[in-house]
Amino acid sequence: xxxxxxSPGLVSYYKSHRKVFTDLYPSEQAAFEFLAPRARHTxxxxxxxxxxxxxxxxxxxGCSGYTGLEIHADAAREGNQSVEQxxxxxxxxxxxxxxxxxxxxxxxxxxxxxxxxxxVDWNVDVEANVRSAWSLVKLGGHLVVSLRLHPTVCIxxxxxxxxPTTPESNEADEVAPYVIISVKRAIDFATSLNAGRITVFGRxxxxxxxxxxxxxxxxxxxxxxxxxxxxxEPVFDVQSPALLRDLVExxxxxxxxxx
Length: 259
Prior knowledge:
By secondary structure, this protein is of the alpha/beta class. It has a single domain (8-258), classed as Rossmann fold (3-Layer(aba) Sandwich). The chain contains 8 helices and 11 strands.
């Protein structure tokens, strides 16, 4: 089970932010432009807050087959009232229980694109959250997920690496884990999914100004992970940054040499 956030600040912020395509980070925009979902494609947004991504994808690509899932009950309620205007919906529930929540609401269990931005690494077991998301991707579909990477370090301890649940933090805010994963761990985990092509967009930068973490520089990525027919080693296609491309190429090559 994931942390059930309840801070009212999360609702007040996300009901008016990240609701148009240009509000998304450049790496997120690049990932969706690469994916180029069609209007008829089904989208499942895990950790959807108030459904802003639904509006952004409807605006840019005409996607009306949008379903959000959000653990914050008030945010889910706000989001559902918003996206139902174009035919979408937002359900209240945990990513780890997504299949049960979808089924109990008579929703599909497989989607053309399953998206989770700034959500899976807000909880302790990032890999379990990603696996839950991956199980809901259709064959031939894609998982779009954002993560924080570091060349060598993994950090998953909410006492030393955390962030308020809203960018405009205040004393009433809750805090979420600020999980950072090493590049090697990310490669090993991606390989375990038996994915096809993994296309990555990202940048290098300092942690969020509201984050408390001992890590001084983070590789922020958005990965578009194809669920194909192939098995074994995935094909990594790192569009940016160059440092991550070099790290992935060296570590993948090294793993092949070990075999």
